[in-house]
Amino acid sequence: MELLLGLTTGCVFGFLLQKGEVLRFEKQVGFMLLKDMTIIKFMFSAVLVGMVGIYASHSLGLISLSIKATNVGAIVIGGTIFGVGWAIAGFCPGTSVGALAEGRIHALWAIIGMIFGASVYAEIFPFLSKNVLTWMNLGKISLPQVMGLSPWIVILVFLCVGAAMFFFFEKKGL
Fold first, then answer.
1. The Cα angle at residue 159 between residues 55 and 170, in degrees rounded to 5
2. Using one digit for the tens of pLDDT, what is the confidence trace for 126-138?
3. Of the candidate ranges 71-80, 86-95, 137-146, the one whose mean pLDDT is the lowest
4. Buried/exposed 83-98: b ≥16 CB within 10 Å, e otherwise
5. In angstroms, rounded to a whole number, what is the distance separating the alpha carbons of residues 101 and 95?
6. On the CB side of 81, how many CA atoms lie within 13 Å of its CA?
7. Neighbours of 37 (CB within 10 A)
8. How many CB atoms lie within 10 A of CB 20?
9. 165: pLDDT strictly greater than 90
10. What is the residue-wise DSSP string for 133-161?
11. What pLDDT does 54 receive?
């Protein structure tokens, strides 16, 4: 059942990626040049919906949260590798699979690169876990917890910032 649910949500996400036009190369490059905010609008919308859905499900007792430790070293290094890979390939993991599904064979190179990178990570993980993954380990924290606020207040702020951001981007034609 979990596999079927995963396949279904993956297909829905891929459909939305395609309909939102974020699989298009010109959208990827436009974002990297800060000339087209389609990708930011798409992803931030997903983050906002996810925030509300996860905390609503948690509030209703449908799920329990398992917060992963915040590790600044891993975030900085991983984010840098992700960003460089995205800039070189023109795809992130989700858009590469979606582009391949649309028939863009060149996306296969990005997927091969991601598999290679994941393999290298798996091989060097023992070293990383004793070094890089210990840099600035802040433990299992969340933004509402650090701020001493209800998660719903933080979510409301994010929703307001998102609405303002979307309004600004639309007004500027981004």
1. 145
2. 998 888 888 888 8
3. 86-95
4. eebbeebbbbebbbbb
5. 10
6. 13
7. 20
8. 18
9. yes
10. GGTTEEES--HHHHHT--HHHHHHHHHHH
11. 92
